[in-house]
Every structure is written in structure tokens, then in C-alpha cells.
Design a protein that fits this description.
Blueprint: H1 9-15, E1 20-23, E2 35-36, E3 42-43, H2 48-59, E4 63-67, H3 73-82, E5 86-88, H4 94-105, E6 112-115, H5 122-125, E7 130-133, H6 139-144, E8 147-148, H7 157-168, H8 172-177
Parallel strand pairs: 1-4, 1-6, 4-5, 6-7, 7-8
Antiparallel strand pairs: 2-3
Helix pairs in contact: 1-7, 2-7
């Protein structure tokens, strides 16, 4: 069966050597809204498509890394459930965290991709080989991005990024076969 998903060849060429993918959370894996309970607990809404995308990256040998400026119990539980172990919580200065991860994995910026939505993400987005933004990201981020997803943040945008990387790596069709 031929997959229905396609991306322009120039995007696939630009993303074919990616081995690590950096993700922001709020405004990328969520819609950017922050809900608080009466007790002041942060509530988050995650899209199920994004979660499988992160798992598929891992199966394909692409390391997902989350670098977020916030920290919350719901986020920790979600990432733990997905098996994402490379995580930096409460990190406003994201570049050092990305550099630490690259060094630990023996990779460089040319093997990295990232998805972000606002100014704190720019130091990483400007250095990676393949930068991605959701459609409602800040204009400076969209201008920096090589690709802007069709899906909105918190509504499958991270999955679209994952799928693009999987197609570029030549692993998408093989992974899809497991679900036939």
C-alpha cells in the first residue's frame, strides 16, 4: 500500500539526515492556552496524534527532545507515558540544553531539527538544519522556519513535523505497514 502522505522533495532533502528533534511544549504540543484549576494546578490538553508521532520517531532512531520553559505534573506524566527521556523543564535559555543534548548524543546542529513557536525558541531554531513552526507561531519564528505546519499547535502540528521527519528518513512507509 502506498502512503497517502507526501511532502515537497526539497523539504525531504533538507530533513533527510535528521537524528534528533527538539520540541517546545506550549504553543507546539498544546494550543498555547494555560488552564488553572481552583487549587492553582496547571492543566494541559495534549493531542493523541502528537504522542504517537513522538513514539514513531523513537522507533525510527530519531531522538525526540523536549525543552520547555514551564514545568507541570501533567506534562511530566504525558512525556513519561510516551517514553520521552530527554527532557528539560523550566528552561528559558534553550540553546545550552540543546547543545548539551547534541554533545551527549555525539551529534551536531546539522543533524538536528526543531519545532517552536516564540522568541525563546529562536536560538535553537536558527541553528538547526531544519526548523519548523505551527501556523500561529510568532511572525519571527514563522520567518525563521523552513516549514510551517498545516495543523495547528495542540491539534496535530507536532505529529505533522514527526511525519515529515519519518518520510525524509525513509521510515514512514515501513512504520505504517505495522498498522495494516
Amino acid at each position: 500500500m502506498t502512503p497517502a502522505l507526501t511532502f515537497p522533495p526539497e523539504l525531504l532533502l533538507a530533513a533527510q539526515d535528521i537524528r534528533v528533534a527538539f520540541f517546545d511544549v506550549d504553543g507546539v504540543m498544546t494550543d498555547g492556552g494555560i488552564l488553572f484549576s481552583d487549587e492553582g494546578e496547571t492543566l494541559k490538553r495534549f493531542h493523541i496524534l502528537d504522542g504517537l508521532g513522538l513514539k514513531l520517531l523513537q522507533r525510527a532512531g530519531i531522538t525526540p527532545v523536549v525543552i520547555t520553559g514551564r514545568d507541570s505534573k501533567p506534562l511530566r506524566k504525558r512525556l513519561e507515558a510516551l517514553g520521552v527521556t530527554n527532557v528539560y523543564y523550566g528552561t528559558e535559555d534553550k540553546r545550552p540544553a540543546a547543545e548539551k543534548t547534541l554533545a551527549a548524543l555525539g551529534l551536531d546542529w546539522s543533524q538536528a531539527a526543531a519545532m517552536g513557536d516564540d522568541w525563546p525558541d529562536l536560538p535553537v531554531l536558527r541553528r538547526v538544519a531544519f526548523a519548523v513552526a505551527p501556523p500561529h507561531a510568532h511572525i519571527e519564528v514563522r520567518h525563521t522556519a523552513r516549514y510551517v505546519t498545516q495543523a495547528a499547535a495542540g491539534h496535530g502540528a507536532a505529529r505533522e513535523f514527526c511525519d515529515l521527519l519519518l518520510v525524509a528518513a525513509g521510515r514512514y512507509a515501513q512504520l505504517l505497514e505495522a498498522y495494516q
